[in-house]
Amino acid sequence: MLHGAGIDVADVARIARLVERRGPAFTTRWFAAAEIAQCERAAVTTAAFAGVYAAKEAVWKALAIRAWPGPVPWRWICVTESAPGRWSVRLGGPVADAAQAAGVGEVRVHIAQGGAVATAVALATRAVSGAPPA
């Protein structure tokens, strides 16, 4: 059963400027170590960062967590490519706790990169009784 859906579009040039100007101050605030390593290995690093950025935003929207005290801890939403074109979402820390409390079981995401933008769509499904969030 569907819990929530989210979509986001990231401007590749904007993300490129943030990576270039702020470097690790930007990347380590927004991305988990696994995401940074993966994006830095990509053929077009800035497009990869933009895709993962859009995916994280889409996942957050799909989780539909209404009450959150303060800034979203983006590094606790980890989106990595498990196989070419296949993405996996790993929630951690307080985001995983909130997702579990909201009844989320699994989150899936797809990223489309092309030209000036990266687009991501995420779907969160309800948990099967007794299963932890994915």
From TrEMBL:
> Is Repressor one of the keywords UniProt gives this record?
no
Which Gene3D superfamilies does the UniProt entry name for this protein? 4'-phosphopantetheinyl transferase domain (3.90.470.20)
Keywords assigned by UniProt, alphabetized: Magnesium, Metal-binding, Transferase
Q: Report TM segments.
A: none
| Listed Pfam families | ACPS
Q: Name one GO biological process term.
A: fatty acid biosynthetic process
GO molecular function term, any single one: holo-[acyl-carrier-protein] synthase activity
Q: What residues does the 4'-phosphopantetheinyl transferase domain cover?
A: 6-103
Per its UniProt entry, which superkingdom is the organism in? Bacteria
SUPFAM superfamilies from the UniProt entry:
4'-phosphopantetheinyl transferase
Which InterPro entries does this entry report, sorted A to Z?
4-PPantetheinyl_Trfase_dom, 4-PPantetheinyl_Trfase_dom_sf, Ppantetheine-prot_Trfase_dom
Entry keyword annotation includes Cell membrane:
no
Designated name of the protein: Holo-[acyl-carrier-protein] synthase
Which classification does the entry list for the species? Bacteria, Bacillati, Actinomycetota, Actinomycetes, Micrococcales
